[in-house]
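Box 3.1 A note on notation
Throughout this textbook, protein chains are presented in two layers. The first layer is the amino acid sequence; the second is a token string describing backbone geometry. Keep the layers aligned when reading.
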Amino acid sequence: MDRPPSPPPELTGVVSTDPDARRSVAGSRGPIWMVPAAVARPRHIDEVAAVVAWCAAEGLPLTPRGAGTGMPGGNVGRGLVLDLTAMDGLELRADGAMVAGAGAVAATADALARERSRHFPALPSSAPWCTFGGMISTDAAGARTFSYGPTHRWTDALRVVMSDGSIQTLRREAAPADSAPWAGLHATLRSLELPAPPAVRKNVSGYAVDRFLATGDPIDLIAGSEGTLVVVAEGTFRTEPLPESQGVALVGVPELDALPELTARAESSGASACEYFGRRLLELGRLLDDPRVSRLDVRAGALLVEYAGSPEHVAAGLALWDDEAITASDPETVGEIWGLRHAASPSIAHAAGDRRSIQFIEDAAVPRSALPAYLRGVQAALDRHGVDAVLFGHAGDGHLHINPLIDLRLPEWKETVRGVMEEVIDLVAELGGTLSGEHGDGRIRAGGLARIWSAPHCRAFRAVKAALDPQGLLNPGVVLGEQAADPLEGLAEGPDLQRLVKPILPSTD
């Protein structure tokens, strides 16, 4: 699309086709780059509704977007990008509820809560930048989802704009399962007699139809839908008192087969987080040089297990690991040990040299018992294609991040990416997993859903989209994908990576 239709007068100053404005929303934290035809930057929900209604009347696709921290391409598009970052209002009510605009930054909200000795437990690692609209769209999660659950569990109300431009307010205590369009959709899904979904602890692949069927609450369906069903303008989220105490155990993992037992022990003992550092991360991040890590048996990596709550609960949890871990409960040392994880990424980027971490298979979740098979299978696929990678993440939830390091100077780099991706999708299907535990399908993974989900589930996903976005204008190509679409469209086409996409010239020596 070269030029969008002219917007109505009431959207003057909201919609722009300026080339610099369009390029400013063409990329994201992930590797997909798409320059849109136009950008809209609304300041309140009425302007959002006006933009959506105009797009519906003109048949103009639109992609809702927050801070651009999403990884798999669900926040970029070719039509109009709806930049919601100006809608950043925040209010912490006396009852501890946080009312946040779609553009409010998660860490800013959490800091506001901490001024009253409260916090928002579902913060992802991108909290310093990500927005609440994006968190709902991906049902965001993080390290402490292990005990606290993802964003939807902390969401009490949403104000949303439907695909026709109408506004709805959805509340947990008054879930409108008997109102349009929710009642008819609920009945349609019930008639499909869906089989059980994949038995994983975290999932934001496809639509949460099983959750919606269980509760009848539209909030449970909207969470994780990646801006393909409605536009989230505002939400009300619960906070809770800060824990009295925290402590961590850094546990060596001598072999991959130990992971299911170690993670189960963390869960049964009430841990708040259970994070895995793969051996390659320890090597590239130079964590093996740290004297705390070098004392442990880390042949297959390490686990960081956290406890939060009363001092007694923390002490009891740490005591379970005394013989095989480094433990700490003083705030300074706890911060230092968590810092080992946070400091690893810059070290990896430095060690990668001319290679780049291209996140195309980075977010699958499998049953926790399948973790050893998953890690071995991924490593085998990487080895077959000659790709180095860093593996880490939320082992307690069976959900790991894989960051393949790709040399974009090689002419066959995209074929390599495609080959690894195809093998890993097959592996996830074989192990009964899903393609995303917290970042969503986006564009990269949308084409793989039919290989993971049952035919009735795929029919259910299409029924959800047809009921809530009958024109198919909200974020087309995301979650369900489009026929004949290339999942790697726009991959590494941004200016930061394009400078590397050139063949390595033969030596003249």
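The chain has 18 helices and 18 strands. Residues 331-351 form the longest helix (21 residues).
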